[in-house]
């Protein structure tokens, strides 16, 4: 999957002290190879409303964190008071309206993406007897308001806590003292949710999920157990439901299985299956190599392999696909069935933002295309195919309701895209409102169905020319001549405006050869080339006469090349990121595991953690085991300070009590307060405590045995006897 | 003189009377022309937050992820970022560096040093310059009201040049339980005034600072329930837990306020101050502060509270906390069982104060007079300065050692003290195995 941009400016503003979210965010952005400058600003409303604020000047990502507690703090002589009562209800209502308006203003006037997180409230919100308002109701109202705005990525408090449950997230003490309302483990989870949103917003989305069948969609093997013998266990049921939801959000579901096709269809028709045959966009059920089948599916769907996710339970199949199709995100299901749901919900590639109506009908569109392809094979000539399609192309000015889809096209279309300029809804809206700029959407339909909005043109009057800034057409509409109609319309527009020339800028990328070939084929009167781009100039009079039928023969030859270009994935996915995505799903999928990893990483950075020293004797080994159990962290060295590896006072007490039990010693609490709390230090305290429980004669006897040994011999014996 | 104060607690913002008193003391000594430096912890892990809070008042010198250095009223504060009171290794290392770099003439170690690691570092470095400022009974290493008994730490106290205490109660405690001599000095300063008279029979809150188990929240809550017609104010600070907060919020006549640095903001709205502590307060700062403003105080009869009340009535009975469990909560505070309380004397006192105008006004006036007298005649920073200047430096202090019996000899410790870590570990391992096999044989 390609990143849209790897350099970002992030501006944060929160109603509380949000600095602690930084460390997990830095951790994730580094992991994903995103360079980001992170800036914190006070006063949420000022940031959103002041045209000169850091947020309003930002073209990257703005993150707004809201906690309702902070709205309930009122000035009352004695600084502030936390209380909610009837009087405050009106203040909350007003705040919601004001916030929505402020966010709207900021979104409409900047090109930045806005992530708005509603953070969970403190338990104090629920305790007041004067509760005149229901917190959840307030959150719902704000969330729905945010959903109604374009260009916003809203996050509800349940989105955070459902993905990364933290039972005891509130830190009363630090809220009171420093306005830092959450424990670090929650801040790490919050940073993770924000990082997921940033990842989704800055990455090109995946489009296809290819699923294996046996042991993946169901438990059992169709060919051996028979269709009746396979089972949809609860974990597979969850997997199927997950995939259905992905399909609803715009993913194409395909099957790739080594099986008999009829068995698979029969299996899918079983009443307990959630995924039904009609929901599958395409499939390859045969005994071929899976990598070959994936390539065939890519050709059939006319999509690049780097937009594919492949899911299989079999590590050997996964390895084969990984090796031969490295651009595919290959996910090997966890060995334990119960780990499947957590694994899938932590594959960030499945996160979808900004879905449109077109996404939800994508499977339908693919099926229409299959019919179209069949029809084409039946026709004797390309010409006959084109005329038989009864294609209808409509080009109309871009309206408010089409903004989301238009922005999505700029984000997704790679092959037939002259300049590959990516734009957000806000940017498109702003450009449209500029003087001398025209934006058009292109919709198409034929006898097999409606393609929906498939293209976009943005052009600008510049002197005597109509300069084309964006010209793009979805790959599913290629090969029908729609691009010829689009160019002709540009000719008409130029002529209507009295402009003599249509100037098309072409910026070559590793993927947009189809667009380049189209321009070469038309043959401009004047082409100037530089290192970065080529400028094709057509007279308006010529452009308006461009007609597909005149180019049919050459276009037919080009079609194969277009197919090849679509498959080409030279710039495809970064294999490192693909491995990171899989690693996250497997190992960084709970608030605790993330917290531990972020903790370790941030210590590595500040150099606080001591150099690793492995346990040197039995005492250290056993105490280290207790630390690992209590702290749920691995790779602790015996010289690491408890507080540098994520420990806290309560954990120290738990460790002390476990040590007392394990060694049956009465270790005093004072050992916890003596400065550096390490495994080595505790081991020594245990030794001292143990020694004092033996009588002098016994110790003297044992000491005599050690008397003539060198230090090396002692250490050797210690290691041996600790085994 | 170059003076260095060290405490395992935040200096600014100061939470709790002891830390606030350390601050007013250092500021006063700075005004007298001494070069003052403080090594403290940064508040709630956030040096940057600390920087932000002080905008306008404090001058930030430098800020790093480890330590924030700033100036406040002539005192240089080095706020070290720690994660908990137990996480004192870095604070101790920083103090050791500062003792070398700053070369202080006197090192003031506050009782706010629960593991006594700062005391240990200072005593090892320059015992004849160490002055122990005892403000909190709980954090002493001995006696029935301490949290963690540690005889070896008590020995460290004997090595200090001097022990200074806030009042007679602590002086007696020191002698009774450790045979330590201490000097009572006005190390809790209340500023130069003027102190407005806020006593007001007609309106204002019945207020309590730091409502929590140790400070007697149960009495506060019970009074609030008994007098629904009165308005109560709670100012949660370091001791208040979320459960305490829940209990406070459940009462309609209790309002909850953030802590304020300028106490006048609280006192100007206060009718009666409650200090119903259940643990052995050394000498509650709030009592004197409220009395200075003519606010009657109902205080519990524990520790140094009666002394702080300066002979003015209402010192009321409570069932005090009787020892601590060997455990701490999430804030490193000791855990204890809280005894049941008899609310009746408190109810009667409050009822009388708020129903008889003459009585209220009389108590208000006498409270104010007594407190003003204390501050004017017994509370000057000059006395502390003179004591520090006159302290004998260099000649190692032995004044305390002849007063106490030698610590009981521990033969096992003598036998094993000189062993290398590996020898000790092997010895312990073998003895432990022997012990286990003996256990199995039986």
UniProtKB/TrEMBL annotation, chain A:
Keywords for the protein's UniProt record, in alphabetical order: Phosphopantetheine, Phosphoprotein
Carrier domain: residues covered: 614-690
Organism field: Paenibacillus algorifonticola
Database matches in Pfam families: PP-binding
Cofactor: pantetheine 4'-phosphate
Matches recorded under PROSITE patterns: CARRIER, PHOSPHOPANTETHEINE
Name of this chain's protein: HAD-superfamily phosphatase, subfamily IIIC/FkbH-like domain-containing protein
This protein's record includes keyword Aminoacyl-tRNA synthetase: no
Automatic annotation (TrEMBL), chain B:
Pfam family, any one: Glyco_trans_1_4
GO function terms (MF aspect): glycosyltransferase activity
Keywords, alphabetical: Glycosyltransferase, Transferase
Domain of life: Bacteria
SUPFAM superfamilies assigned: UDP-Glycosyltransferase/glycogen phosphorylase
Protein name: Glycosyltransferase involved in cell wall bisynthesis
